[in-house]
Specification:
A hairpin with a 2-residue loop joins strand 2 and strand 3. The N and C termini lie far apart (99 Å). The chain is mainly α. It has 12 helices and 6 strands.
C-alpha cells in the first residue's frame, strides 16, 4: 500500500506540474477578459455620468453662475469622474457655463491682492482678507455679465481657493495652506513646514482673554511652552518667518514680540474705505 500511495503521490505532483502552465494561462486570459469588460463598463458609466452632468449644468446654469455654494457643490460632483469644467475656456463647459472665464479672472484679481500686500505680510494672506478687499473694491467678473449692473457678483472664499488652485497647477508658486482653522494663500516660493504653521496658529489662537498679548502675536516663551520645543527649534521657525517678512519683530523694554500681519489683519477684518486694505 505504501508503494502504491507513493506512486500515486508522484503521479499527482507530475500532473499538477504539467497542468500548471496551461491553468495559469487560462487564468490570465480570463482575468484579462474580466479587466477588459470592467474597463469598458467603467468608461460607459463615466460617459453616462458626463451626459447627466451636462444635462444638470444646462438646467441649473443660472444657479451655477449666481450661487457660490451651488457652484462649489457642482465642482465636487465633477471631480470623482475626472470632469474639469475649468480646464478650458472653449468647448461646452466654457461656452455654456462661463465658469472657466470666471475662475481665470478671479485668480488674476486674487493674485493682484496677494502681490500688492507682500511688503506688509511677506507673501501670506488669509483667503477671507482677499475676499474682503475684492468685495470692497466692487470687483466684478464675466460670470455676472447677465446680471443687472447694480447687482454685485457673488463669490465665496471657496471660489477663491479653487481659483488659486488653478494658479498652483501652472507652477506659479501660489498655493493655499491651512493655519489652524484659517485657509491662507502663500504667494512666494518659501517652503513652510509644520513648525512654521504651528507658530502662526499659536498667534492666531491668542484672543487677548488668556494673555495680555494682542491677537496675531507670539513671544519665544509662549512658543516653547505651548509646543515643548527647544529654544533652538523655536528660534529657527521664528527666524525664517521673520526673514521672509511674514513676521515682524517688536522689541519693547527688552521683550521681543513677534507680530504676524496676516493673522492680525484677518482677526480685525480692518480694511480702509477704498477697499485697499492698506495697500
Amino acid at each position: 500500500h505504501g508503494t502504491m500511495a507513493h506512486r500515486r503521490g508522484r503521479v499527482g505532483v507530475g500532473r499538477v506540474r504539467q497542468a500548471g502552465p496551461r491553468t495559469n494561462a487560462g487564468y490570465s486570459k480570463k482575468a484579462e477578459e474580466l479587466r477588459t469588460v470592467s474597463i469598458a463598463s467603467a468608461v460607459e458609466t463615466v460617459q453616462k455620468l458626463e451626459v447627466k452632468l451636462t444635462e444638470f449644468a444646462k438646467k441649473h446654469k443660472k444657479e451655477m453662475q449666481n450661487d457660490p455654494a451651488f457652484r462649489a457643490r457642482f465642482l465636487e460632483m465633477c471631480a470623482p469622474i475626472g470632469v474639469d469644467p475649468l480646464s478650458s475656456e472653449k468647448g461646452f463647459w466654457g461656452s455654456v457655463l462661463g465658469i472657466g472665464d470666471f475662475y481665470y479672472e478671479l485668480s488674476v484679481k486674487a493674485a493682484e491682492v496677494c502681490m500688492a500686500s507682500r511688503s506688509r505680510n511677506g507673501g501670506i494672506i488669509s483667503v477671507s482678507e482677499v475676499r474682503d478687499v475684492l468685495m470692497k473694491r466692487g470687483t466684478r467678473f464675466h460670470i455676472s455679465s447677465t446680471s443687472s449692473k447694480k447687482d454685485k457678483c457673488k463669490y465665496s472664499e471657496e471660489d477663491i481657493i479653487v481659483a488659486i488652485g488653478k494658479l498652483s497647477k501652472l507652477g506659479s508658486g501660489f498655493r493655499c495652506v491651512k493655519v489652524g482653522k484659517t485657509i491662507m494663500i502663500v504667494s512666494v516660493p518659501t517652503e513652510l513646514d509644520s513648525d512654521h504653521m504651528e507658530v502662526m496658529e499659536i498667534a492666531q489662537n491668542c484672543d487677548g482673554t488668556l494673555s495680555s498679548r494682542p491677537r496675531g502675536t507670539v513671544d519665544m516663551d509662549e512658543v516653547r511652552n505651548t509646543t515643548g520645543w527647544t529654544e533652538e527649534r523655536a528660534k529657527r521657525a521664528l527666524d525664517l518667518l521673520l526673514s521672509k517678512g511674514m513676521a515682524w519683530l517688536d522689541v519693547h523694554q527688552g521683550n521681543e514680540l513677534y507680530w504676524f500681519p496676516s493673522v492680525w489683519k484677518e482677526s480685525t477684518g480692518s480694511t480702509d474705505e477704498t477697499g485697499g486694505a492698506g495697500y
